[in-house]
Amino acid sequence: MKTRPPFLLSGLFLAALLGWACGKNGGSPTSPPPPPTSNVTSSNVILAMFLGEGPLRPASGLTCDTSGSWRGYPRGSRLHIRLSTALSGAERSNVEGFLAGLSGLIGGAYELAIETTNEENPIPGFLEVTATSLSNPQIDAFCNPGAGGCAKFTFQAPSILASSRTASRHGLGGNVHNHELGHGILGLCHLDGAQMPDALMATPNSAATSNFNSLERQVIQAVMRSGLSAGASRADFERAGLVQPAGTSGASSSPGLGAPGAVDAPPILRPNRRERGGAAERERQ
User: Which domains does the chain have, with CATH numbers?
Assistant: First the structure.
């Protein structure tokens, strides 16, 4: 097993922001979900998942303040995904299958290196994403009371992630880990579970979804192929042909997917010494 002392950034911008709350619970819905609405278009899915806005943004408080730009890691980053041995064998298998599929979706935009740590609740270092399972009291303290899981972040610059730390409540299974890793690896926001109940990034959700649905996969692949990188604004997404221009109806048609992007990737900032610290984003359902 590989263990390494965690380190974060010094001399870089580490934003101390409390962000959107999320998590997936393990309950089952008491009635069938409503059918998808006309808002479910590729443009609106991208707006909600990457920018935290538009008609598919959840109506609840579990939203995502991205300040109008895609929050994520710089394009070309090699991300170390550190899985704690606190994950059960079933959870580990589920997560590894999810990560294998994600690697195919993101193509060359990022490289994912999966590692193991015996730390129960590891603190990630620069360009690291951690995942662990915690007991009920631990998850209530680490996330929020009642949360199924959460993701916490540090930033190296506005909208540019430095690290992500994800956790799920023991007993909820690997599906919640996959949801949280969607936040932690790609910086994704939530989709409205009332309109897209089968989406991995939906909230509320019964935690029955183990992977992205077909439309989520389609838009993630389109954004990864577009050339856009973390920090891209809505205007950049519009110029890339990925979302409808502001003020137009996203329900009538969907933009062409996979159009070339038009923004430069921000530089990858390097740490100059090791230290602990950082900011948190909390998730709750």
Answer: 42-239 (3.40.390)
